[in-house]
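User: Watch each token:
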Amino acid sequence: MNFPFYIAKRYLVSKSSNNAINIITIIAAIGVVVSTIALFIVLSVFSGLRNFSLNFIQVSDPDLKISAVEGKSFLFTEKIRKELIQEKIAAYSKVIEERAFFSYQDKSHIAVIKGVDSNYLAVSRLDTAVYFGDWIDYEVKQTVVVGSGISSILSVGAYDFMESLKIFVPKPGEGYISNPENAFESVQALPIGIYKLTEEIDKKFVYGNLSLAQELLNYKPDQITALELKVRNPKEINEVQRDLKEKLGHAFKVQTREQLNSVFYKMLNTENIASYLVFTLVLIIALFNVIGAIVMMIIDKKSNLKTMYHLGAEIRDIRSIFIFQGFLLTLSGLFIGLFIAIPIILLQKKYGLVMITEYLAYPVEFHLSNVLIVALTIVVLGYLAAILASSRITRKLVTD
């Protein structure tokens, strides 16, 4: 067996004659255990929050979205239709999006009217977010579904036949407006459902029939602002994107869900990195206890180190003893911490031990990548701490 490793194991498991050193070693080990638990739980919580947030985006946004590079709208031609009929594309939907002014009784709000065709639910299951009323009735052009935020701002409910929701958009043109009454196109709609996703989306979109949006904007029957696509295999999204870009040409841009929400994805990644760095700093502080424990052990074993040196052990071998000791101390803390933290995450995921609200458990996700990140962080920092502590061993220390 390797001599430094053997001595390090003996030093780690055997009690010191100085009780203070034993206490410091225990405190150092507990610090590593607690830091491991904290780091793993935080990473798992952020993984859960990330998936929880992305679930809403996956409901509201398509796998791929095709829009014009220049201008707001384009014509859906037979050539475009043929390019979308392929095995890798499960479904597509024609949509129109435009900012509009919404008025209900004496209240108003600016949001986006999003007209969708009857194939929209094959692309996005937004109907699952409707908690009151129904999804759009495609046989009744004037029906719309509003977000809970818009419903709250306008005090509008579902199936109010006494009062309609008025939608206004400015008429296209140039120059000054001479008559405000003729400056807007308008339609009246009947809200028949209210959906709830995120606070931002709930205040931003009103969903209606494609024909209603075309009427409001004076669009031609084949004039739309975007095409939203559902890809059969999520792993092939980038491949389908490249293929469509090549076939449709430079007049169109094809964006993935991540590209459509680039700011949101960047925010999630930044939060995850920031939380990791904060708790890594906590771990570094805890490892100062490991450094202190090793230094105290070096002082306590000074006479033994002199004996080993005079028996032929080199300085680097003596240093290796305490490098191994510090490494084994952090490694044992890592295993104990993961042994405690992993069941906590699995129990939270299955039984919801900690609740955000009465009906919503705090979201967590168990990923092997988080285990590897925690293990790598503890091992590397623990090894560096052991090297730093063992550097105190010099020829002068073992010869004086």
In short: The mean pLDDT is 88. The CA atoms of residues 4 and 318 lie 7 Å apart. The first strand starts at residue 64 and ends at 68. The chain is about 50% helix and 20% strand.
